[in-house]
Design goal:
Number of domains: 1
CATH topology: Aspartate Aminotransferase, domain 2
CATH class: Alpha Beta
Radius of gyration: 15 Å
Number of helices: 4
Shape: globular
Helix content: 25-40%
CATH superfamily: Type I PLP-dependent aspartate aminotransferase-like (Major domain)
Length: 94
């Protein structure tokens, strides 16, 4: 099942199912079915300016936030969601 197919199936599910399962894809390396909390601040790069899987610095984006944002979007019935560390950070984006 692809992520797109999984998302479509979740959109038709009840709120509790979306809250539990959205953004929870099994980890390809470890097989973990629940997204771990990534405590790293930086990620290994493929080269200068070359992001590995889109991650460079945890304050901008990391796998834990991606999972949370996907869950939040599913619960709200939205296509995308963004999370921030504080209200001031959210206001600054506007």
């Amino acid at each position: 099942m692809t992520i797109a197919t999984n998302t479509e199936a979740l959109n038709a599910s009840a709120l509790s199912t979306r809250a539990i399962h959205a953004g929870q894809e099994p980890d390809p390396t470890t097989g973990a079915v629940v997204t771990p909390i990534y405590m790293t601040s930086t990620f290994k790069q493929d080269g200068v300016g070359g992001l590995r899987n889109g991650y460079d610095y945890s304050r901008s984006i990391n796998p834990t936030r991606n999972s949370f944002d996907a869950q939040l979007a599913a619960v709200e019935g939205a296509k995308y969601a963004l999370s921030f560390a504080s209200g001031l950070a959210a206001i600054d984006v506007l």
